[in-house]
């Protein structure tokens, strides 16, 4: 009875936390998507930055929906999610959404770097001129990589050997204990490679922007007035640095999840998996306050609620 009570308590606590995170994610990302879509319908103009933010907002909105549905089913009817092919479908969709979130976020950093940084290299100048044509290809590449990850995740879930169905630790985190398998190890390696590559892209973009700001500052030392380019540098660097901190925490959490998965320490995995979605919520808030249109609309909306 005590074991059943502990499992029920942990499941109820995890579902409550996920529900709070899901509602926050729905509201914030739904706000981003609705504001950008309304603006596009009114002005018929959609710049590259808004395209990236819109795709990121849509993916995160769907991601929170899938996460909440999975958590809800694991509480109400836990055995249905392990029926073939439900587990494989959930694994594939989750892998696709997580991968595309990571890569589209990295694309946003690359966009800021190309758009704002000043370098005289021929290839960099070409990218700056053709940035509006490059962005759709960046988004297409992100979706293609995420699709490959989703297909491979489905194959790994289909080949995985499930056991210990009645395990207390497995029920706490809402998943079954998976036996050691070479396909799962390869999946971990590929996931680590994808996340590491995106992390390197973010670091490289941040360093380029910082170097460009340093050069521009030295050029403007003779002029006491700040120009628009300097302000754009600083604003972009603030946004990227915030995202860099969030990305670093997320990357550390992913490495810890791999470590605890090999050690089969499910309680630590539970807390890390609960903490990870909060980082996506924080980054969505940063996207709102770094975009003048979104920030202005949010302030107007909040002021209306305050007056009412």
TrEMBL record:
In which domain of life is the source organism classified?
Answer: Eukaryota
Coarse class of the protein's main subcellular location: membrane
Signal peptide location in the record? none
User: How would you describe this protein's topology in the membrane?
Assistant: Multi-pass membrane protein
| Subcellular location per the Swiss-Prot or TrEMBL entry | Membrane
**Assigned GO CC terms:** membrane
What Pfam families does this protein's entry cite?
TAS2R (PF05296)
GO MF entries: bitter taste receptor activity; G protein-coupled receptor activity
- InterPro entries assigned to the protein according to its UniProt record, in alphabetical order: TAS2R
Q: Which SUPFAM superfamilies match?
A: Family A G protein-coupled receptor-like
Which segments cross the bilayer? 12-40, 52-77, 89-114, 134-154, 184-215, 236-260, 266-290
Keywords linked to the UniProt accession:
G-protein coupled receptor, Membrane, Receptor, Sensory transduction, Taste, Transducer, Transmembrane, Transmembrane helix
So what family is this one in? Belongs to the G-protein coupled receptor T2R family.
Q: What is this protein called?
A: Taste receptor type 2
The organism is: Indicator maculatus
């Amino acid at each position: 009875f005590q074991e059943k009570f502990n499992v029920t308590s942990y499941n109820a606590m995890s579902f409550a936390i996920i529900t709070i995170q899901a509602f926050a994610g729905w509201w914030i990302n739904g706000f981003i998507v609705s504001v950008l879509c309304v603006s596009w319908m009114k002005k018929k103009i959609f710049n590259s930055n808004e395209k990236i933010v819109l795709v990121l907002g849509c993916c995160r909105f769907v991601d929170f929906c899938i996460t909440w549905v999975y958590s809800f089913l694991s509480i109400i009817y836990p055995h249905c999610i392990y029926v073939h092919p439900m587990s494989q479908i959930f694994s594939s969709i989750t892998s696709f959404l997580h991968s595309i979130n990571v890569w589209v976020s990295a694309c946003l950093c690359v966009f800021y770097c190309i758009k704002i940084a000043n370098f005289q290299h021929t290839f960099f100048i070409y990218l700056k001129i053709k940035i509006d044509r490059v962005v759709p290809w960046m988004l297409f590449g992100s979706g293609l990589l995420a699709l490959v990850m989703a297909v491979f995740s489905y194959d790994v879930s289909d080949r995985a050997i499930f056991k210990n169905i009645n395990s207390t630790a497995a029920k706490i985190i809402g998943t079954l204990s998976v036996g050691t398998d070479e396909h799962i190890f390869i999946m971990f390696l590929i996931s680590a490679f994808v996340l590491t590559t995106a992390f390197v892209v973010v670091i490289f973009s941040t360093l380029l922007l910082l170097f460009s700001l340093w050069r521009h500052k030295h050029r403007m030392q003779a002029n006491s007035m700040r120009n628009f380019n300097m302000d754009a540098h600083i604003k972009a660097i603030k946004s990227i640095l915030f995202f860099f901190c969030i990305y670093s925490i997320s990357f550390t959490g992913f490495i810890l999840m791999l470590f605890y998965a090999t050690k089969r320490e499910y309680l630590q995995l539970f807390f890390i998996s609960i903490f990870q979605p909060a980082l996506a919520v924080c980054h969505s808030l940063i996207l709102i306050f770094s975009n003048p249109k979104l920030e202005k609309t949010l302030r107007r909306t909040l002021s209306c609620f305050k007056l009412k």
